[in-house]
């Protein structure tokens, strides 16, 4: 059995979700017989990690500070094995602008987008380019922070009258925002999981069906607010394309251990919206739901992720 630090909490907007994920992982690790030490992120984190000298860290942090390579780089400096992707991959996936550019260069479909920086808006008058960018993409638009999760700061904009308000809303969460053409179609989440010494595999295809409106924060974390079809009810040809797209995305962005690829299937073509290197493990999260549908208990899922971290001797990107 291993001594495992479970990192949860942090300072992002997803702090509360991180605690829920962390608590579920802690309990699973305890049931598996591991020595578990929950640890919130604070100023004394480095000293406590050095004092504990764990065999591994199970990262349950969401959002900035957890998924952006910060804690991953610290753990590598301390020579502590950890779950999930490395610093560079975490940076790429956390920033939707970086991720979408890398995917587009690799030939992976992602909705057309434009990127705006708050500094450019303030110093270079880039606000004048907003209408041009929106017109080139076409309405409706999604306006969202480039480096936030759980749909924080996301707005659907139907026309030019609502554009500026949505932009200011998104800038309230991040200094970089994205305007993205709104994509219609089935929303399918694709969890990816590695085995010790094995290749990444698709755990399942999860079709997301909010009962009311969009798949926002409330729909994600309120039990009963969203229905899930596992496997996704899409034609076999589309299912094959989803698996291929998810695998290519995972490899292109250099992910390790596990990740979740979020897509919209538009006219039979998967379009990648987001990649989560530390997906939620709450009761309503798609990753553990996919594992359960595949016949894997939550404890088995946690043990498999931890085993890869303990045995992985490769350099993470």
TrEMBL record:
Presence of the UniProt keyword NADP in the record: no
Keywords of the record: ATP-binding, Cell shape, Cell wall biogenesis/degradation, Cytoplasm, Ligase, Magnesium, Manganese, Metal-binding, Nucleotide-binding, Peptidoglycan synthesis
Residues involved in Mg(2+) binding: 262
Active site: 14, 150, 285
Catalysed transformations (reactions): 2 D-alanine + ATP = D-alanyl-D-alanine + ADP + phosphate + H(+)
Residue intervals of the ATP-grasp domain: 100-307
NCBIfam families for the chain: D_ala_D_alaTIGR, PRK01372.1
Alphabetized PROSITE patterns for the sequence: ATP_GRASP, DALA_DALA_LIGASE_1
Pathway: Cell wall biogenesis; peptidoglycan biosynthesis
Catalytic EC class: ligase
Function of the protein: Cell wall formation.
Subcellular location: Cytoplasm
Name of the protein in question: D-alanine--D-alanine ligase
Family designation: Belongs to the D-alanine--D-alanine ligase family.
Gene source species: Rubrobacter radiotolerans
HAMAP family: Dala_Dala_lig
Co-factor binding comment: Binds 2 magnesium or manganese ions per subunit.
SUPFAM superfamilies, A to Z: Glutathione synthetase ATP-binding domain-like, PreATP-grasp domain
A Pfam family this chain is assigned to: Dala_Dala_lig_C
PANTHER family the record matches: D-ALANINE--D-ALANINE LIGASE, D-ALANINE--D-ALANINE LIGASE B
Enzyme Commission number(s) from the entry: 6.3.2.4
Domain of life of the organism encoding this protein: Bacteria
GO CC aspect terms: cytoplasm
Main location, first listed in the record: cytoplasm
A Gene Ontology biological process term: peptidoglycan biosynthetic process
